[in-house]
Write a structure and sequence with these properties.
Blueprint (H helix, E strand, L loop, with lengths): L6 H8 L1 H33 L5 H7 L5 E2 L10 E2 L4 H7 L5 H31 L7 H12 L12 H36 L7 H35 L4 H29 L6 E2 L2 E2 L1 E2 L3 E2 L8 H41 L10 H7 L8 H17 L8 H23 L14 H23 L2 H11 L16 H5 E5 L17 E5 L11 H31 L5 H27 L1
Antiparallel strand pairs: 1-2, 3-4, 5-6, 7-8
Helix pairs in contact: 1-2, 2-5, 2-13, 3-4, 5-14, 5-17, 7-8, 7-9, 8-9, 8-10, 9-12, 9-14, 10-13, 12-13, 12-14, 14-17
């Protein structure tokens, strides 16, 4: 598991395309080590401050602050101090280190890709494929197979492109609609679970919602593959490599929305369109929309990421290995039982190969797609789940061995294909890197409590005038971040035993206590959030560009080797030319 991969031996048996997959997967796994260590340090630093956070202390000591009911399923008031444990847990991944880690991961993604390009250049030069032309080789193969082959010129149809664009947008809208179905499920599940769960309804909804989302991913993956193939047939690519490239982009685009639409909803929409107590937004006028967790929306996002990524890594690895293993064993047992096939010793190896699972053009493609989605989970929304690189590292250590066992022992040999890079997947990785910067900047600004804490610390807190104050600069933050609602303004006043004398309750928002409109603090915070997103994205993207410039794609040794070969070829050509002139 920890030995260096025999890339040259893989190339000699499976061809360059498979060898480059294992070379990339090995390098990706190796680069996950520093990312996993930093993420683990950020997470553990929260443990070091588990009981020292001023906000957690105030929440745990808030025995007199009464919180408004979150939804129809919690039709009772509750004390803020009841969320003490969740407040401490949230601080594990919603702290100042989260911002630094998100910035680190943006830089890490760039360095990973740039050094991989250097690794690829060295490997391809070693294989003498640096100047290899894939298009020219495909034309040569066509001429060998059919001497009457006619060259297919490049063509473009605006009508066909418009039709493909419309169908692609329709599929994306359908996937987003499926995400809304998941929202409806969460609302209805909250009403259902309220009949036998009281205080853990929100947690149950989050967990079951993540499970439903995972099942939706499994189903929509099959639908997206079918649609991507049909869109490729409609586009009519000229060569097999072009078809592979267009299929990759279409399938990944659809898969991206399937995997991340629910996370986008949780991160940026959940709990933000619900109105306020006494005037709540309701689904079909009946069910109140779901609220964020008692400790904030970061807890929802963390749980969602942990469940989906954990399930995907664990179940995918199990299914990926045990399904072909079971099929192979069943096929072998059936063949032996019925005495099928020749018993001649010289044909034993052929008979063994026939019993192996067949391979398709998607066999290697599926491996790449699985890793691209994992890379997306590792970088996008990593600000809410610092342990994502660690889970990816453990998964990849198993993935490399399972892929090797599956390709060598359980499947027939893939048809060897030449390649000098990983193709369109490199563009996918670069796109994910940019999306990760945008998503993490928005998570820090709009989902976490980082911006409200900083604004309170320097504008409203005890340290705004005197930085050397004896009090913690976040003293009073909890009370400042909760709005007041007068219980007399409830349309149907809540009458519960023990809460008869409650005249006002608190809820998470920045609204006036008189008309319940957004307060000045809300708009000031919104402006700061937007400014932070712009600043974070520009600084992170500029840092990525500088890192990409600082680390050349091709090592100087490779450039010099290629230059030397060109020079020697030119010298040889000139000598031959001079000899022919003398004759």
């Amino acid at each position: 598991m920890f030995r260096e991969q025999p890339i040259d031996e893989i190339r000699n048996y499976f061809g360059e395309k498979v060898a480059l997959y294992f070379a990339w997967l090995g390098w990706y796994t190796y680069m996950l080590v520093p990312a996993a260590l930093v993420g683990l340090i950020v997470f553990l630093s929260g443990f070091a401050l588990f009981d020292a956070s001023q906000i957690s202390k105030e929440i745990c000591e808030a025995h007199t602050i009464v919180m408004c009911p979150l939804g129809d399923h919690t039709g009772s008031y509750h004390l803020l101090s009841e969320t003490c444990t969740f407040a401490k847990l949230t601080h594990l991944f919603d702290n100042e280190g989260t911002v630094l880690f998100a910035f680190f991961m943006a830089l890490w993604a760039t360095v990973f890709l740039e050094i991989w390009k250097r690794q690829r250049a060295q490997v391809v030069l070693h294989w003498d494929l640096y100047g290899w032309d894939e298009e020219q080789e495909e034309m040569a193969l066509e001429l060998i197979n059919s001497p009457d082959y006619e060259l297919r010129p490049h063509r473009h149809s605006y009508v066909r492109s418009m039709l493909i664009l419309v169908l692609s947008l329709f599929m994306i809208c359908l996937i987003i609609g499926m995400a809304h179905v998941l929202v409806v499920y969460r609302v209805l599940a909250a009403a259902l679970f309220s009949s036998f769960l009281e205080k853990q309804v929100t947690t149950a909804v989050v967990v079951t919602g993540a499970l439903v989302h995972y099942m939706m991913i499994v189903i929509m993956t099959k639908v997206n593959r079918f649609m991507a193939l049909k869109l490729c047939d409609l586009e009519k690519p000229r060569t097999f490599s072009e078809r592979e490239s267009t299929f990759t982009m279409k399938f990944f685009s659809l898969q991206f929305f399937v995997h991340f639409s629910s996370l986008i909803y949780v991160a940026f929409i959940l709990g933000r369109i619900n109105g306020h107590p006494g005037k709540s937004t309701r689904l079909a006028g009946l069910w109140k929309l779901e609220e964020c967790h008692l400790s904030g929306c970061m807890m929802d996002l963390f749980v969602q990421m942990a469940i989906i990524m954990g399930l995907k890594q664990t179940l995918s690895n199990c299914v990926e290995y045990f399904r072909p293993w079971l099929v192979h064993k069943c096929h072998t047992i059936w063949t032996i039982k019925h005495n099928c096939g020749s018993q001649e010793p010289e044909l034993r190896e052929w008979r063994h190969n026939v019993l192996l699972n067949p391979v398709t053009t998607f066999s290697l493609f599926d491996e790449f797609m699985e890793m691209m989605i994992q890379y997306g989970f590792t970088t996008i929304f990593v600000a809410a789940f610092p342990l994502a690189p660690l889970l990816a590292l453990f998964s990849n250590l198993v993935e490399i061995r399972l892929d090797a066992i599956k390709m060598v022992q359980l499947q027939r040999r893939l048809v060897p294909r030449k390649a000098k890079d990983i193709g369109t997947w490199l563009q996918v990785l670069e796109t994910i890197g940019v999306l990760a910067v945008i998503a993490n900047g928005m998570v820090i600004a709009f989902t976490s409590e980082f911006i409200p804490r900083v604004v309170y610390k320097y504008r409203y807190g005890p340290c705004r005038l005197n930085s050397s104050s004896e009090h913690d600069c976040l003293t009073g933050y909890v009370n400042h971040s909760l709005s007041v609602f007068h219980t007399k303004d409830f349309q149907d006043p809540i009458k519960k035993e023990g809460w008869e004398n409650v005249t006002e309750c608190r809820y998470r928002d920045y609204r006036d206590a008189h008309d319940y409109n957004h307060s000045e603090q809300f708009w000031f915070l919104l402006a700061i959030r937007l400014a932070f997103v712009i600043l974070f994205e520009h600084v992170a993207l500029c840092t990525k560009l500088v890192a990409a410039w600082f680390v050349p794609d091709v090592p100087q040794s490779v450039k010099n080797s290629v230059l030397r070969e060109k020079f020697q070829a030119l010298q040889k050509k000139m000598r031959c030319s001079s000899r022919s002139t003398e004759v």
